[in-house]
Amino acid sequence: MREELLSAKAFAVKHIRAMIHAGEFDEDGRLSTATLSDQLGVSRTPVRDALWQLAGEGLVTVSPRIGAFLRQVTPAEATDIYRIKAAIEPLVAGWAAERATTRQREAHQALIVDLEAAATAGDVDAYVTQLEQCRALLVEMAGSPPAAETLSVVDGRVRLLRFKNLSQPGQLTVSAAQHRAIADAVAAGDAAAAMRAMEEHMLDALRRVLRLATEHDDSTYWLSRVRVDG
Q: What is the distance between the alpha carbons of residues 59 and 51, in angstroms, rounded to a whole number?
């Protein structure tokens, strides 16, 4: 029974995540457990479990006794998040270049090769999955628990932003090239170059967020309506 429930949950997570990325939910952002259960052909328990997992991924907000909703991020909040990331992530890249082991550098290079393959194939889902693995390893290589904890909080709020940005024509190629530059500097142990490459990547993202923030009001469901940088 436990294996069946886990399988149903995984099925629900996969499909609800895809529906969120595709913008298939109503403007009010409410996620009905009963409706999703009917649509997916599974019971309500794995749907509830799936929504809690997606809440952990930063895509959903679950309020006990109230319900589940698409994650709310305003343009102002997104701008603040990217300013924080632009300040912290170059440090992470520099520390990774200084502190990573040979095995970690090799593993990171292998992940970048897979990332580039996903970009070449135009597979956004695979690219996002691969990108998150690359970033998780980079943070691990940096060996900084404070930085890791800070990024774990803010990153959960930008997963949908990242997916929407990378869905734009040509963006996978741009992103892959930027991450290749970061990875090569880290592999070479060049902290200054790693910091510069990451700073360029993050400032590019921040510029797009700032531009879009001036074009939209503070709608709490901004994420579901516009394509922004991730």
A: 9
